[in-house]
């Protein structure tokens, strides 16, 4: 009886493990090629469907190609996805609804949307957490910053960006002195090099002040 019970427990555990692995395998992934190396981000459409769809639309339209990491705060975040090397703001799609109450936390390596003070103002800019930042999470009294993915490979690239010297540009004191670009952003599939494409128009142009604030 004990042996049979043990086998049932093991079998059940394997089933749950298999389901968990299958779910992770099904999550879309994005490959960011930067001046410092390649970063792979796993996205969580189940928890943040609106945000993931928005991010993938920008990826599929090649929006992020040539944008820079314009805000680097060591020990806090690395932020990019909205400006070119000369700090020109790219036109964006309409803002999306905030999904920060999805249970995902601003932990080390997680990827979240930058926004204005209006919770529903995120467009294209995103950031990678350099540490756990609980002050950016939603609470019962206020929305937070929506986490929608996590760096699963290449975090050393983000850490290297975080070490870039800054301060050369008076209007952008947190920008690296020499631009660190996203050379390309595309859907990642280790078994295929196929990349989706989209020609949806970008109709909005407001990214100004889409910065997260240190807590």
Automatic annotation (TrEMBL):
Which molecular-function annotations from GO does this UniProt entry contain?
peptidyl-prolyl cis-trans isomerase activity
Name the residue ranges with Low complexity bias. 191-200
Superkingdom to which the source organism belongs: Bacteria
Q: Which reaction does it catalyse?
A: [protein]-peptidylproline (omega=180) = [protein]-peptidylproline (omega=0)
Q: Which GO terms describe its biological process?
A: protein folding
The signal peptide stretch is: 1-24
Region (Disordered): which ranges?
189-215
Signal found in the keyword field: yes
Basic and acidic residues bias (residue ranges) = 206-215
**Class of this enzyme:** isomerase
UniProt keywords (A-Z) are: Isomerase, Rotamase, Signal
Taking every annotated instance into account, which residue ranges of this chain make up the domain PPIase cyclophilin-type?
Answer: 37-187
Question: Which SUPFAM superfamilies does the annotation name?
Answer: Cyclophilin-like (SSF50891)
Record-linked InterPro entries? Cyclophilin-like_dom_sf, Cyclophilin-type_PPIase_CS, Cyclophilin-type_PPIase_dom, E_coli_cyclophilin_A-like
Q: Specify one Pfam family.
A: Pro_isomerase
What Enzyme Commission number does this protein have? 5.2.1.8
Answer yes or no on keyword Signal. Answer: yes
Q: Which PROSITE patterns match?
A: CSA_PPIASE_1, CSA_PPIASE_2
Q: What does this protein do?
A: PPIases accelerate the folding of proteins. It catalyzes the cis-trans isomerization of proline imidic peptide bonds in oligopeptides.
Family, according to the entry, reads as follows:
Belongs to the cyclophilin-type PPIase family.
Q: Which PANTHER family match?
A: PEPTIDYL-PROLYL CIS-TRANS ISOMERASE CYP38, CHLOROPLASTIC
Name of the featured protein: Peptidyl-prolyl cis-trans isomerase
* Lineage, uppermost ranks: Bacteria, Pseudomonadati, Pseudomonadota, Gammaproteobacteria, Cellvibrionales
